[in-house]
Amino acid sequence: MTRTTRRHVPWRFAAPIAVAAAAVGAVTFGPAAFADDSHPALPDLTAEQLVAKVTAAQADAISGTVRIDTDLGLPAMPGRGGGPQALVSGTHKLQVAVDGADRQRIGIISDLAEYNVIHNGRDVWTYDSRGHVATHGTVDATGPDLATLVPTTPQAAARQLLDLVGPTTEVRVDGTAEVAGRDVYRLTFAPKAQGSLVAGATVSVDAETGVPLRVTVDTVKGGKAAIDVGFEDVSYGKPAAGTFDFKPPAGAKVEEAPTHEAAPGAPATAEAPGAPALPGAADGKAPALLGDGWATVVELPGGGAGQGKDVTGMLGKLGKPVPGGTLINTRLISVLTTDSGHVFAGAVDGDTLRRVAEQRIAARR
Question: Which end of the chain is more exposed for a tag (fewer CB within 10 A), N or C?
Answer without folding.
Answer: C
